[in-house]
Specification:
Structural class of chain A: alpha/beta
Radius of gyration of chain A: 19 Å
Oligomer: heterodimer
CATH topology of the largest domain in chain B: Rossmann fold
CATH topology of chain A: Rossmann fold
Mean pLDDT of chain B: 97
Shape of chain B: globular
Number of domains of chain A: 1
Low-confidence stretches of chain A: none
Distance between the termini of chain B: 44 Å
Strand content of chain A: 15-25%
Distance between the termini of chain A: 63 Å
Largest sheet of chain A: 8 strands, mixed
CATH architecture of chain A: 3-Layer(aba) Sandwich
Largest interface: A-B, 35 and 42 residues
Strand content of chain B: 15-25%
Low-confidence stretches of chain B: none
CATH superfamily of chain A: Thiamin diphosphate (ThDP)-binding fold, Pyr/PP domains
Bound molecules: thiamine diphosphate, iron/sulfur cluster, magnesium ion
Number of helices of chain B: 13
CATH class of the largest domain in chain B: Alpha Beta
Shape of chain A: globular
Number of strands of chain A: 8
CATH architecture of the largest domain in chain B: 3-Layer(aba) Sandwich
Largest sheet of chain B: 7 strands, mixed
Number of strands of chain B: 15
CATH class of chain A: Alpha Beta
């Protein structure tokens, strides 16, 4: 019998190898996600047929191509409204949105903002590689100030967007940052996020050796991995203020918000009861 | 069946419920908001969902998502909103997602005269999105037609797994008319065709025996793949010319070859006609009156009202207008649909009657222009 990987049962193995560059951090992120999902399925918290993956466009969004779940690889920035609609129609689904920093926080920023405001019952995983990988190295909203990109060849003049702060300010139930340089922590974070109601937002710092690494002088995947790793500061209960980052100061990872307020579906259910005349006063 | 006096907009809302609508997502815009507001009040009573999203982009993408969760889904908008929806309509085309967009035209370009009418968006409604394919466009001219064509729009969308545009305008939107409303069982309501094979054998873009693949949904246990990239029958990305050809021609053919089944029109005096006044939407009301005036003056005129605009049923149209010498295309724009017909009716004189008016162009004006060309 052929030797199989324990996670193969969650993969469309006929699509492997992935399209990602050798040494890309995205594989580590996908592995951690699948292990976390597997644990939740084994526990009976999740049902396999109720896991839905939605991604927009970008290297990160192509994570939706590989797992053997209901998946949608839609258009750039628009994964959130697609996923939320599925959730509204089929509340038993666990909808997971995966996207890059551009996909989620630039073109998809308005949808993110409103999903956060709604505390929409979604797990949103934003992989922050600080660059537009798929299109060849243009400025991302998350690119640290001063760094070279192909559209800011003299160094990014703008301040980097800290999406953690945005998510915390707008009322998500769970806001965490993790990193592919710390795969066990990443798995634990996603595992936890999977059981939250309301919106769980997980930022995953990742390495793009092909583009970002080349720009900053660390083309070798291991070198870039080590450079990111040494900039990571793991904290328990970090403050929101500590979530600001830049390339020289480094990145605090940990859970920034963990609460259990009613999610969109909770308040929406009450609203629907009023419509059908079943409201209790 | 029961009769009620309804505006075109409310007829659309009522018919969508009859058609089995279960998910409406929208963003307010004149002259469509009353469709939204009516459904917000009524649809939850039928177990449906009505959600206001942050913009039209979110709305149409949510409609696509809801359709993939097996809900019949719709949004309504006007020019500015439809322009924002175009990228997602292209997604709905390649992923073969059934949905309905009620497009109530107003005066443009841009913000134009938001409360008034026009037919400037007739080509945009099908050609607006990228990718070079056509989606069916149905065009009512009365509240009754708005009602009937809404049901048809849902049925066509399910049968062909395609987005369908229901193209109305600001006049029809708020004109009252008597509408015969169908009860359940009095009208055909097409439900989604689901796969008959087990999940292990299911290929989401395999049309099996025909042009339209059966559709599994999120949560059905089929591991569906909604894929915006060019894909094979499995839904796997395939950047190859042969895959692109296969997919494009199937998507093209499933609409083009249904043109005859989709096509619908009504006519006045067509059996004794030398001069046809062809029109659609609210302008058709004016063309019909003009036809009668012309006949009183001894012109063998007739009026042909198209209730469907795309796909253009080329053979059918040529045949329909066989004995007619001259075809006048009356519309409330710069002569847009005329350009479509000119190509189809090559062997006949086709004359454009472009009459720009914030309401219905007056019949007298139609008569004047047509008389000049007789
Ligand atoms: C509407 C639209 N605009 C632009 C693009 C081109 N595009 C594809 S992916 C991408 C950005 C990718 O960056 P990110 O979201 O950070 O993902 P990454 O590849 O870095 O994972 C862009 C601009 C597109 N596909 N659609
Ligand atoms: S371009 Fe960067 S993010 Fe994309 S696959 Fe290659 S290394 Fe990964
Ligand atoms: Mg990126």
């Amino acid at each position: 019998m052929a030797v199989t990987h324990p996670l193969d049962r969650y993969l469309r193995v006929d699509r492997i190898p992935t399209m990602w560059c050798p040494g890309c951090g995205l594989g580590i992120a996908l592995g951690a996600m699948l292990r976390a999902i597997d644990r939740r399925i084994e526990e009976g918290v999740l049902k396999r047929e109720n896991v839905g993956f939605v991604g927009g466009i970008g290297c990160t969004a192509r994570m939706t191509l590989y797992p053997q779940f209901d998946s949608a690889h839609v258009i750039h920035g628009r994964a959130i409204p697609f996923a939320l609609a599925v959730k509204i129609v089929k509340p038993e689904m666990k909808m997971i949105v995966v996207g890059g920093d551009g996909d989620i926080a630039a073109i998809g920023g308005n949808h993110l903002l409103h999903a956060l405001k709604r505390n929409a019952d979604l797990l949103v995983i934003m992989v922050n590689n600080m660059i537009y990988g798929m299109t060849g190295g243009q400025l991302a909203p998350t690119t640290p100030r001063g760094l070279y990109t192909t559209t800011t060849p003299y160094g990014n003049p703008e301040k980097e967007l800290n999406v953690i702060k945005l998510a915390a300010a707008l009322g998500a139930n769970y806001v965490a940052r993790s990193s592919i340089t710390h795969p066990q922590l990443l798995e634990r974070t996603i595992y936890k996020a999977l059981a939250k109601r309301g919106l769980a937002f997980v930022e995953v710092l990742s390495t793009c050796p092909e583009i970002f690494g080349r720009h900053i002088g660390f083309r070798n995947p291991v070198d870039l991995y080590m450079e990111l790793r040494k900039r990571i500061v793991v904290k328990t209960n970090p403050s929101i203020e500590e979530s600001d980052y830049d390339w020289s100061r480094g990145f605090v990872i940990g859970e920034f918000v963990d609460k259990d307020e009613p999610g969109f579906l909770d308040t929406y259910r009450e609203y629907v009861l009023k419509a059908v005349g079943g409201a209790e006063r | 069946m029961r009769y009620e006096y309804l505006t075109g907009n409310i007829a659309i809302a009522e018919a969508s419920i009859t058609s089995g609508l279960r998910f409406y997502a929208g963003y307010p815009i004149t002259p469509t908001s009353d469709i939204f507001e009516y459904l917000a009040r009524e649809l939850p009573k039928y177990g449906g969902h009505v959600i206001q999203f942050e913009d039209e982009i979110a709305s149409i993408n949510a409609v696509i998502g809801a359709s993939w969760a097996c809900s019949k889904a719709m949004t309504a908008t006007s020019g500015p909103g439809f322009s924002l929806m175009l990228e997602a309509l292209s997604l709905a085309v390649i992923t073969e997602t059934p949905l309905v967009v009620a497009y109530v035209m107003r005066t443009g370009p841009s913000t134009g005269v938001p409360t008034r009418s026009g037919q400037y968006d007739v080509l945009q409604s099908t050609y607006g999105f990228h990718g070079g394919l056509v989606i069916p466009v149905l065009a009512p001219s009365t509240p009754q037609e708005a009602y009937d064509l809404t049901i048809k729009a849902f049925n066509v969308s399910e049968k062909l797994r395609t987005p369908v545009v229901l193209l109305s305008d600001a006049v029809i939107a708020h004109t009252y008319g008597k509408v015969a409303m169908r009860e359940k069982g009095e009208v055909e309501v097409v439900e989604r065709s689901k796969p008959s094979v087990p999940p292990s054998e299911y290929r989401p873009y395999d049309p099996v025996d025909g042009l339209v693949p059966p559709m599994a949904c999120f949560g059905d246990g089929y591991g569906v793949l909604v894929e915006s990239l060019t894909h094979d029958e499995r839904g796997y990305y395939s950047p190859r010319t042969d895959s692109q050809r296969k997919l494009m021609w199937r998507l093209y053919r499933k609409i083009a070859e249904s043109a005859g089944q989709i096509f619908e029109y009504s006519s006045l005096y067509l059996d004794s006609c030398d001069v046809a006044l062809v029109s659609y939407g609210s302008t058709a009301l004016s063309a019909q009156v003009a036809t009668k005036v012309l006949r009183e003056r001894g012109v063998r005129a007739c009026s042909v009202k198209f209730k469907t605009l795309f796909p253009v049923y080329e053979e059918g149209l040529a045949k329909l207008l066989e004995g007619v010498e001259k075809v006048f295309v009356v519309e409330n724009n710069t002569g847009l649909y005329y350009r479509e017909l000119r190509g189809v009716l090559k062997d006949r004189e086709v004359v454009s009657v472009p009459l720009i008016d914030l309401d219905v162009p007056p019949p007298q004006e139609v008569v004047e222009v047509v008389s000049k060309w007789l």
